Amino acid sequence: MNQTVEQLRLVPLFARLEPGDLEKIGTLMYERRYGKGQIIFMEGEPGEALFLLKEGRIKLTRQTEDGREHILHLVNAGEVFAEVVLFDGGGYPATAETMEDCRVGIIRNQDLEQVIAGSPGLALAMLKIMAGRLRAAQEKVMSLALHDAARRVVSTLLRLAEEHGTAGPEGQRINLALTNQELAELAATSRETVNRTLNDLRRRKIIDVSGPQIIIRDRRRLLDTL
């Protein structure tokens, strides 16, 4: 139980709660393990729970009208996801699929609702998290509307570097093992466009590729391509 409470304390959604509230939520959480490539829930299924990723990485995706997969968000350890269903009572707005072996904490909505009823602070924290997600989604929509395909790839690289990057002597490394197809799904474009854009940036020594990871060697020049 102590380990679960400490994990919850590190999550922005729960960080400001009193120890007693954290313990209450900790008693509600149960854990499941998923292998790489497993589906946790599908878009449109009844939304029954809130999830905390304890270990691994998950992608949240939606199907476009032409049947392509579009990645909405990459979930890292310590993040909550599917919290929106707690408020609207509808189905899951996206599909959650593991990108590697994962350990996931699960809290049923009906159990958490009882805790929220007695904790306005938790309700406020959730609203702030969701407001941040909405702002990020709006920025992404603007990027898709205003930028051509190549610039969307660049914009996606910059966003991934901000969210998942670490600085080193060679530049800013994006700590994600993404395929070009997954990068295309994040940028809402084709794999061919991603290949062409990355090759051009690499030729100009703006980025480098180390295995499955991308290194931004010259952030200023990358920004200038937007």
Automatic annotation (TrEMBL):
GO terms for molecular function: DNA binding; DNA-binding transcription factor activity. PROSITE patterns: CNMP_BINDING_3, HTH_CRP_2. The keyword Nucleotide-binding does not apply. It comes from the Bacteria. Coiled coil: none annotated. CDD domains: CAP_ED. Residues 13-116 form the Cyclic nucleotide-binding domain. This is Putative transcriptional regulator, Crp/Fnr family.
